[in-house]
TrEMBL record:
The active site is at residue 99. This is Histidine triad nucleotide-binding protein. PROSITE patterns: HIT_1 (PS00892), HIT_2 (PS51084). The lineage of its organism: Bacteria, Pseudomonadati, Pseudomonadota, Gammaproteobacteria, Cellvibrionales. It comes from the Bacteria. One of its GO terms (molecular function) is catalytic activity. Residues 5-113 form the HIT domain. Signal peptide: none annotated. Pfam families: HIT.
């Protein structure tokens, strides 16, 4: 497990409400939401950045994508969400334990990116 805040949340050292959990990942509400719905999907395996994932992680990465669909459905936003992965400091990553941001509850249709 990583020493990051997410490693501590996954291990239970820092209590947090899991919106979703399965064998390979959890989902929690972001502490500083950037949209009305802002959920983080975090693999239990501590991969620092997306680019640090290797061939061994192929199945896990697919699993995370399928989990996103399930979580979006659970949240009632399967038809309207944005999925973001920040990679590296220059990409805006602040917690170096891979995670996916599900952003929803606002209209992204006219956003420039
Ligand atoms: P990054 O910038 O690394 O892509 O995203 C890290 C995210 O983790 C940020 O959106 C930040 O608000 C969130 N975050 C940081 N610390 C905590 C925490 O202790 N609990 C929760 N739930 N989210 C956190």
């Amino acid at each position: 497990m990583s020493d990051t805040i997410f490693g501590k949340i996954i291990s239970g050292e820092i209590p947090s409400e899991f919106l979703y959990e399965d064998e390979h990942c959890i989902a929690i509400n972001d502490i500083n939401p950037q949209a009305p719905i802002h959920v983080l999907v975090i693999p239990k395996k501590a991969i620092p950045r997306l680019v640090d994932a290797g061939a061994d992680d192929q199945e896990l990465l697919g699993h995370l994508m399928l989990a996103v669909g399930k979580i979006a459905a659970q949240l009632g936003v399967a038809d309207a969400f944005r999925l973001v992965v920040n990679n590296g400091e220059g990409g805006g990553q602040t917690v170096f334990h891979l995670h996916l941001h599900i952003l929803a509850g606002t209209n992204f249709a006219e956003a420039s990116i």
